């Protein structure tokens, strides 16, 4: 759980579907360049969940940080309460998802130490300094905060 009705995850498998069903999700924001697996796509379709695939074109280097364009599009989805309950995910729920959450925390005025602590908690031993640098340099003024926004913002 990131905030009320806002969750993060890696790509789930069939064992996770009953739990996800209980969340009553309306929206999945998928950040990986490749498509989710077919079983998950079938689950999304069966549950009438809207999928926003923002991963875009696979980069030449898998370690490249997520683009500013994807971050802004993901935050636009996250800041729209009509999309809730929502889950933000990538393959493992670590780096791309962690970068989005870090930028969201910056928008929430968290201090960088707390943002990086949360990022590292999920990234484990595979922290990517370029992602932390992206979060630190991310310009929150680029984000259009809607009038009808989630109450936690």
Looking at this protein, list some descriptive labels.
alpha/beta; about 150 residues; four-stranded parallel sheet; Protein-Tyrosine Phosphatase, Chain A; globular
Supply the CATH class: Alpha Beta
Helix-strand makeup class: alpha/beta
Shape summary: globular
Q: Please give the share of residues in helix.
A: 25-40%
Task: Report what the structure shows.
With 153 residues, this protein is of the alpha/beta class. It has helices at 17-23, 38-46, 68-78, 95-107, 112-123, 129-137, and strands spanning 6-10, 27-30, 50-53, 86-90. A four-stranded parallel β-sheet has the order 1-4-2-3, covered by helices on one side. Helix 2 links the parallel strand 2 and strand 3. It starts with 5 loop residues before the first strand and ends in a 16-residue tail after the last helix. GO terms for molecular function: protein tyrosine phosphatase activity. InterPro entries: Prot-tyrosine_phosphatase-like, Siw14-like, TYR_PHOSPHATASE_DUAL_dom. Keywords: Cytoplasm, Hydrolase, Protein phosphatase.
Task: Provide a quick synopsis of the model.
The chain is α/β, with parallel strands linked by helices and 153 residues long. The protein has 6 helices and 4 strands; from the N terminus they run βαβαβαβααα.
